[in-house]
Each structure stands twice: as C-alpha cells, then as structure tokens.
Amino acid sequence: MTYCVGLLLNAGIVCLSDTRTNAGLDNISTYKKMFTFEAPGERVIAIMTAGSLSVTQTTLARLDEAAMDIEATPETSILLAPSMLQVAEIIGQTLARTSQEVAGRLGGSAASASASMVVAGQRVGGAMRMFLIYPEGNFIEATPDTPYVQIGEHKYGKPILDRVVTPDTSLSDAKKAVLLSMDSTVRSNLSVGMPLDLVVIEKDACRISESRRIGERDPVFREMSVAWSVALKDAFSGIKV
Amino acid sequence: MTYCVGLLLNAGIVCLSDTRTNAGLDNISTYKKMFTFEAPGERVIAIMTAGSLSVTQTTLARLDEAAMDIEATPETSILLAPSMLQVAEIIGQTLARTSQEVAGRLGGSAASASASMVVAGQRVGGAMRMFLIYPEGNFIEATPDTPYVQIGEHKYGKPILDRVVTPDTSLSDAKKAVLLSMDSTVRSNLSVGMPLDLVVIEKDACRISESRRIGERDPVFREMSVAWSVALKDAFSGIKV
C-alpha cells in the first residue's frame, strides 16, 4: 500500500509520502513516490503516487519525456501548460491512458492497474493548487473547507489532520501534522513504511523550498514520534470520564 | 457500517458498540448491536454484532430461542454450554448457518449476508474469554499480546487502543479508552453513530457489572470528547519538529 498526504495552506504546500511498495506480503521494496518538476521562479509541481507501480512509473516517465521533448507544446508538457488546472489535465490523461493500456495487458488477471496521484504546485502569477487525480483521470481539488488530500491508506492518519489543519496552519505546524499523521499510519499498517519524502513549497516561491528524505533512524522524526506517544498518554491520563 | 470494540483485561471485560445501521446512505436507522445473556453468579455473556442486520437479528433470535427451549441441552444452549469455548462454537455455528441460508436466498444479488460477532464472558470457575467470530463461524481469541478485538470500522479507533491498552489497564481507564476510540470513529465515519451501548463485566462477578446507553447529549461523553480534542491540540502544540 502507500500513504501520501498533501496540505494546501495559505502559507504554502506541504507534501509527504512513504516509500514502501509490495506485491504480496512477501515481496516488499522501497520506491520513491514523490516527484518534482521545476522551472525555478516560473513554476513548481510536486506529484505523489499510489497504486500499481508499473502504471505510476510509466505515467511519470511519459510526463517526463513529454516535458523534455524539443517539440513539446503547452498541450503536452506539464512544464509548458498555461495553468495548474491544465497540468492536472495532462497528468490525468496520461495516467488514465497508461492505466487502460496496462489493464488491457493484464486481461482477466487479478493484478490491478489502478493508480491515483496527488498533484500540487503553482505557476507564477497563478494560485497554488492541489489535486487528487483518480485512476480514470478525473480529479478533485483541495479547498479551504478541506485543505488536504490523501491517497493510499488514509484512515489512520486522518483524525489528526481533521483536528489540527486549517488553511491558516503555519508551514512548521503543517510539517508536524503530516509527520504525525504518517507516524500513526506507519504504526498501524505494515504496508506503509519508512523512509519518507517531504517536500515544502512556500507560497509564490514557484520553486521547491525544502526537500528532505527522512530515514528510519532520523533523530528528529524518532524524537517527535516518541514525544507524541508520551503526549498522547499524558493527554489520556488527564481526561476524566 | 458499525464499530464494536471489546477489551479483555485482568480486571474484567469492557464492551462498547454503536447503534447505526444503514442500507445505503439514504436509509439510516438505529438498532442495538449489544446483547447480554446472564445466569447471575453462574455465567455472563455479552455479544456484539456487525454486518447484515437480517443475519445478526436471526442469529440472536435463534440463540435466544435455543436457550429458552425447555428441551435445551449443553450442545444447543449458550446458557448451558460447559465453557466459553463451547459458547463461541454454538454462536459460530448458528451465525454460519444463518448466513448461508440468507446468502442462498439472496442468490446473485449484490446484498451481503456476511456478519461477524464479538463474544465475551465468563462461566463460574472458568477464565474470562473474548472471541471474534467470523462470518464462516470460525473465530480468534483476545490474548495478553492483543487484549482487544474490533468488528466493523476498526481503523480510526485502533491507534489509541494500541497506545494505551494493556492487560493491566484498569476498568476505568478501559472505559475511557473505548469511548475515545469510538469518538475518533464517529467523527470520521458517518456510518458509525450514537447512541452507544457500554457493558462492563468485572472479573469473577459472572454478571453484568454495568450496562449503560450513552446518548448523543450525554454530558459526560460530550465533555470527554471536547476535553480529548483540547488535550490533543495541546499535545500537538507541545511537540517540536
């Protein structure tokens, strides 16, 4: 499985993904699920992926190839598309086409060719936007009412987001929120695992402001995880029934 | 959907169930999912149900009828069975038979005849035991390593159980833990809803020690829910990244 979460805040965008993939419980690997495209100062795009690895890898490779093509046009390249909406449309179309091709090859086999993506970013002069792209290529968008999107194993990590994240949340609190959301998920679902990839995009920077891989032994993450456990137990002790 | 959780502790048994049932999102009702059978001082059994209402109601009615039958035997009545294991077996057989019958009537329709149950209790002289009974009638048992079982929407409410519940947890803390576990679930899944049914069975009492319905406006539950929200936000603020 997978857990990826993105927050769209007034101060910027925060994205966090895990790296565990599995084909059955006996075949576990580490693959990056966080991809960034940048024309620094002009546009920045972060993409997170969940689902069939063959579909997500091929989709990303095609997006990359289309963007690097010397005959690329605003209709084909996410680095030339005139708006984040059109970036989402190019990605949705590429994902749906790839997924259909793979599904056709799989025929009646039990393997799934389903995949979904989170796409977030900003083009200079435009607003920051964040989309959840479904396997069929259609999408929904994060809004002030629900300023986050999740793909993969979303349940364990959702309560903390619902409690602490609003559009006014600071980037520093937002990083904490997604890391604690991930911590709850990693604890409960073996198919979500370390290391993690964190990307922060400050508003109007139109470039990656922070990109960090957080390993199993990362002292800051471990300390935060332990402190959260202790704080939760203390909070529990303090409640009267 | 449903959320039911049972804790098997050194001090006793704590069971909590919601009451929401739905046939589609446009057909929501309130049905009890907590049932108790008692021969006070000799045995006590609590049963919680999840899944197809027609299956769980018929299963409970059959268990009740078999227990009330003047020709009841230890093989057919959960009030006469010589051990909690055999109580679980009678319930498992009745559930599986009812489920198969309903599935047969449903034929190829999309409706499900699947249901699961939590069975907990004690017979005088025996140990307290707690079983999760699967739709096919087989079951697993709570152990000191994992002193709780859940049926229905288990994900949202699991992290708090994993963090605070051990076999040594007091009954008072256990009540708090299941209520907070339910609180997280009710917040996140609309198909789990108030009122709640709480049952506590103290060790070796062989009777229901406490049985309480907790309504939407229950002041203690509301206060706890608000206090937990505040405590979580405070805990969040206190964490440094």
Rg over CA atoms of chain A: 18 Å
Question: How many separate structural domains of chain A?
Answer: 1
Total strands of chain A: 12
Helix percentage range of chain A: 25-40%
Principal-axes geometry of chain A comes out as globular
Q: What is the fold-level CATH name, i.e. the topology of chain A?
A: Glutamine Phosphoribosylpyrophosphate, subunit 1, domain 1
Amount of beta strand of chain A = 25-35%
Order of helices and strands of chain A: EEEEEEHHEEEEHHEEH
Biggest interface: chains and residue counts?
A: A-B, 33 and 34 residues
GO cellular component, one term (chains A, B): proteasome core complex
Protein name (chains A, B): Proteasome subunit
Keywords (chains A, B): Proteasome
Organism (chains A, B): Boseongicola aestuarii
What do you see in this structure?
With 241 residues, chain A is α+β, with helices and mostly antiparallel strands. The first copy, chain A, has one domain (3-238): Glutamine Phosphoribosylpyrophosphate, subunit 1, domain 1. Chain A contains five helices and twelve strands. The first copy, chain A, has helices at residues 53-68, 84-106, 158-164, 171-188, 219-238, and strands at 3-9, 12-17, 20-22, 28-30, 34-39, 43-51, 115-123, 129-133, 139-141, 148-152, 196-202, 210-214. The longest helix of chain A is centred in the middle third of the chain and has 23 residues, at 84-106. The radius of gyration of chain A is 18 Å and the shape is globular. The interface between A and B is medium-sized, with 33 and 34 residues. Chains A, B: It comes from Boseongicola aestuarii.
